[in-house]
Every structure is written in C-alpha cells, then in structure tokens.
Amino acid sequence: MITSKSAHPVVKWIDERLPVFTFLNRELRDYPTPRNLNYWWSFGSIAGVVLVVMTLTGIMLAMQYTAHMDYAFDSVERIMRDVNYGWLLRYLHMNGGSMFFIVVYIHLFRGIYFGSYKSPREILWALGVVILLLMMATAFMGYVLPWGQMSFWGATVITNLFSAIPLVGDSIVNWLWGGYSIANPTLTRFYALHYLFPFLIFVVVALHLVALHMVKSNNPLGVDAKEPQDTIPFHPYYTAKDFFGFGVFFLVYLGFVFFAPDFFGEPDNYIPANPLATPPHIVPEWYFLPFYAILRVVPDIEVFGFILVEAKLAGVILMFGSILVLFFLPWLDSSKVRSARFRPIFKQFFWIFLADCLLLGWVGANPPEGSFVVLGRIGTAFYFAYFIIIIPLVARFEKPLPLPSSVVSSVLNEKKGERS
Amino acid sequence: MIRGALTTACSLMAGLFLLPSPAAVVEIIEIEKRDWSFDGIFGSFDRTAQQRGYQIYNEACSGCHGLRLLTYRNLAALGYSEDDIKAFATDFDVTDGPDDEGEMYQRNALPSDHFVSPFPNTQASRAANNGALPPDLSLIVKARKNGADYIYALLTSYGDAPDDEELPDGMYYNAVFPGHQIAMPPPLYDDTIEYSDGTLATVDQMASDVTTFLAWAASPEMEARKRLGLKAMLFLLVLTALLAAVKHKVWSRLN
Ligand code: HEM
C-alpha cells in the first residue's frame, strides 16, 4: 500500500486504495520536463484536444445521422438546417478533421527535425505512426458518410486499390464492399468502423503517453536532460504554455469554422452520390494528396523488359510503403546526434524533404497528366531516396557541430547572450 | 444485371483513372469575382435582393428546378410574414395520407412542407427536358467552384456559338459552362418579369437577385454563423491574451 501525501482525509482514503491522485501528481504535476521546450512541443497536446473535440462532436452528429444510402445525404443536410446548432457541430467536425491532420503533420515533422524518433524513443515513434494510420482510416471512412459525389467516388477509387493484389484482389474488394458495388452495406460498415476507430486511437494515444513518460520528452537541443536543473515540473510551466497554445489553435480553427467552413472541402461533395456520373476530377481530402500522388505516378516496374510489378500494384505498394518506411526511421538514421540544430547537412535535407512533400501534395491535386507525371515521379523518387539513401549516408559522413554539455548550460548561455 | 454492369463501370472508371492517361485538354474558364452583400465576416444577405430573387426563382426557374431541402416556413428568414408564407404554400399540392379509409389524398401544401419539386422523379424531369436533368438548386451555390460568382456568370453568359462550333439540337451556347454547351435554355430575358418592388428587371439584376436567393438557400445558417463567430473570436482573443499573460508570469519565476 502507498502512503498518500494528501492532507485531505477523503482524498487520502481514496488514494491509498486507488492511487489516482498520486498518479496524477506524478504524471501531470511534478512530471520533470526539459526547461527548453519550444512551441513546436505544444502540438502533441493540441492533437489530444482535437481528438476530444472530434469525438464529442462526432457522437452528437451520430445522434442525428442516418447511415443509409437513401437518407445519409439528406440527414446531414437536416443536421445543417433543422437541428439546433447542427451546422456548428457539423462544421466543427468537418474542419476538425483537417485541423487534426495539420496538427499531427506538424507534430510529426517536429519529431523528424529534432530527432525525437531516436533511441530511446523508437516505440514512442512507432506508436505515433500507428496513430497516423488509424487517423487516416478514420478520416477516409468519415468522408464517405455524407454520401456526396466525392464520398462515393473517393471510396470507389481507394477500395479498388485492393483489386491490384494478385489472385485474391477482386474477392477482397467484394468483401470490403459487402457486395458487388459500393452500396448500402459499404456505408453501414464504414459508419460502424468510423465510430469504433477513434476509440482505438484513444487506446494507442494512451500507450503513446505511457511510452513518453517512461523515456521523457526530447528537447530542441537533443541532449538528454540529466541534472535536476535541466528540468522543470510540468505544472505550472507547461500547463500554462500549452493552454496559451490551445487559445491560438482555437482562434485558427474557429476562424475556419465560422468564416470559411468549406475552405478545405470539395464542392462536389454537396452533390448527392450518383454511381452513374463520374466527377471530372476525383480528388481525396487535401491531407491524402501526397500519398495520392505517389499512388498515381508510378509506372510499371520493369527489369530487362519484363514487367515485374504492374503500375497499379506498384502504386499501391509504394503508397503504403511511404508510410511504413516511417517505422524504420529510427534504424535508418544511425547518427547519435538528435537535433538538426547540430546537423548542418541533415538540416538542409530536412527542408528539401518538407518541400518535396508539399510538391507531392500539389501533384496529387492535379490530374496525372503531362509534366505532373514527371514531377510526381521525381518527388516520389526523392521521398524514398530521402529515407533509404540520404538519411543513412548523412548519418555516416556528416560531421555534427559540438553539442552543449547540458540543457541548463545552453539555456543560461542564451539568456546571457540576450542580455549583453 | 444492373449491379454487375455498375460494378464493371465503376471498376473501369477507377481503373482508367489509375493509369497515366494522355493529357486531356481541360479548359480553364475564368470566373469574374463580384461583390456580394453576403461576402466577408460582416456580410449578410440583402433582404430585398433575396425577396426579388425568390420571385425570380418562382417565375423563371421553378418550372424546371426544385429546392427540395427548403421548407416554405424557411422563407420567414426573408422577412415574409406567416400569412404570406401560408399563401405561398397553398399554391402547391402535396400527396398525404393514408387517411382513415387507407387512401392517399392531395392537399394544399402547408408552411411545414418542403418545397414541391416540379417533377416527381428524375425520369420525369429528363423526359420533360430533352433528356437533360435540371439539378435541384438547394445546394447549387455550394456545389460549384466559385459558388455565387459562377451561378451569376452562368445566367449572364449566354450568347451565339462561335462560327466554327456546331450546336446540337436543344443545346445552347454558354461561355462559362464547362464545354460551353448547356441543355438549359436561357432562362432570363430583359423585362419579362415585373418586380413587385418596381426594380428594373434587367438580366443582370435578375441574375444577381436569384443568385443571392440561392446563396441563402444553400447556407441559411450563414448570418447566425457569422454573428456567433464574431462573438466567439472576440471572447477567444481576450482569453488567449489572458493565457499569454499567465504564461509570461509563470515563466518569469524561472529566472
Ligand atoms: C479521430 C477522430 C475523427 C476523425 C479524424 C473524423 C473524421 C471525419 C471526417 C473527415 C468526416 C467527413 C466530414 C464531412 O464532410 O461531414 C466525418 C464525418 C462524420 N463523423 Fe467523424 N471523425 C472522427 C471521429 C468521430 C467520432 C468519434 C464519431 C462518432 C462517434 C464520428 C462521427 C461522424 C459522423 C456521424 C460523421 C458524418 C456526419 C457529417 O458528415 O457531418 N466521428 N468524420
């Protein structure tokens, strides 16, 4: 039995039987955090807030939504028009999806820049990639629910990817659809899974946090926090900092919700799904565009004139590969130095890589024709080269800058610099 | 049968889409940006323009296009009284029932009924329109790129086809419609409608009014949304400033 430090008798009584208060104290209050975290470290907790907002608005939408192909579109419009503040719920949920990806992509690139994936944070990083995959599946299925033209045709294109699998592809597609075309069974199962997946995300987020608290936060210098002076208690320092971050985040998020709610959307999704009319350009939501580009620009993979992998299958493999490769990043990068601040070559390639992802996004938004195909192939080649060739080589040959001896010494030096 | 054909069609389309196809020529049509009363964070719908637009919809569009997502009582937002709305609704018949004898019957529409569409189903609308389908207009402003600007441009860009372009029967030349051939005959002509408020009924005026009306029909929540938005942003600005001050105060202890 633990002895509770609490002075309050009731709290003490509970705490000694179920140590929630000791736990909260240790993990949220005293929790030692590097004193030099910048605002890029706010995005993890912002992502948590978005997950909660998405779940709450989602559950309330679910109370009004009808998952049937004949009623889904109209039920969403009923939410928009007849349910009290239904438009607010729906726009919060719709734009929340986009915000979620913006926040999580920033979080992820932060991790790459500051080397947060390196030992001892490999599992923490891998759990993050699992969350990303779950988010993508959730958002993809969510986008199908309003049953507009893009819902239907996006689902058609993506589920058809599985038909590229040799031999069993077509059976898998029919199994996913629950029939021979995208229809009511597809919609109802997507709805069931769209409701389920966020809760899986909660579970993986919990593991992500357990892993984080085992190994503690990295920091912009990438050197371990060793002395007590290197860290400060999470509360009140980082609670105060994070809450300010929430304020700024909500200003941006609600700015879209109230004043440009359809900014991230496709006009075609305000047309009810019609299996007989293909929209001229089928595009997924913006956050999938880089992956969509990779999917579409891959040619047949040939060896001495023999087609080894057909274009469609090659595209699917590379698209999934582009995310799976993230799992291996901790082992591809063998440099002991974490932060790009002390890695001049790595830093330059990081920015090129970021630009490459944006380029792929732009290619994905355009039809796969003419120069876009060429750009997309270059972008895809660089994307994989970055992970598989550049990162390992840079780790080997780059000469890192000298590291500061500790977090606190660097922080105090900076302060001195500011004053003089 | 139909299902099979559908599947094949779907897979074909998707399949085609996944192959790098040779460059198709997609013409980019510039749509002129206009000033609307409902633009911007303070924008609201011009009530008189909305009312005139409703009149245009009734007299020039409702013969072919429905507005099925609106109810008659939604028109209260345009400034109409309950009696006005009852009068608008009674002009339409809806099927109701079954009654105590189990029979369906026709009755006049009530304010709580949805706008009655001109055709009972898509087959009937195609049959009456040379095979073309006049889309329901409830969401049209949100369902097209460039929204209101496009709808206005569409209604004002009819003209004669260039000499080298052959127009099939029942098609009309329109400079901003994708492909330039539209199955909708020009719906607006100068002075064919008499505005009840005496405004001069030019094509421009009518197009602008009906577009304002349709923009409202697509986003009836817009005014409430922006009003609440301003309050929310103001509140958040103050809150965020306070949080910034708290953060600053807390961190200053560290030195
Ligand atoms: C990880 C969290 C989530 C993400 C990323 C996400 C994403 C999305 C997206 C992109 C849409 C389509 C937006 C639209 O056009 O309306 C959507 C719709 C929807 N989601 Fe979620 N969602 C999440 C969580 C939830 C949860 C927890 C629920 C319910 C328990 C839920 C219920 C719904 C419903 C009912 C719709 C359809 C209504 C509508 O279209 O507005 N979502 N979701």
Give structural notes:
Chain A has 420 residues and is mainly alpha-helical. Helix content of chain A is 65%, strand content 3%. Chain A folds into 2 domains: 1-30, no CATH class; 31-419, Up-down Bundle (Cytochrome Bc1 Complex, Chain C). Chain A has helices at residues 9-17, 20-29, 43-62, 72-81, 86-113, 122-144, 149-160, 169-177, 184-215, 234-259, 289-297, 311-332, 344-365, 371-397, 407-419; strands at residues 32-34, 231-233, 301-303, 306-309. In chain A, helix 5 (86-113) packs antiparallel against helix 6 (122-144) and helix 11 (289-297) crosses helix 13 (344-365). Chain A is globular and about 65 Å long. The N and C termini of chain A lie far apart (54 Å). The mean pLDDT of chain A is 95. Chain B is mainly alpha-helical. Among the domains of chain B are: 45-70 and 114-219, Cytochrome Bc1 Complex, Chain D, domain 2 (Orthogonal Bundle); 221-255. Chain B has helices at 2-18, 47-61, 82-90, 122-128, 147-156, 203-218, 222-252; strands at residues 93-96, 105-108, 158-159, 172-174, 181-182. In chain B, the strands form 2 sheets. In chain B, strands 3-4-5 form a 3-stranded antiparallel sheet. The termini of chain B are far apart. At the A-B interface, helix 4, helix 5, helix 7, helix 10 and helix 11 of A face helix 1 and helix 7 of B.
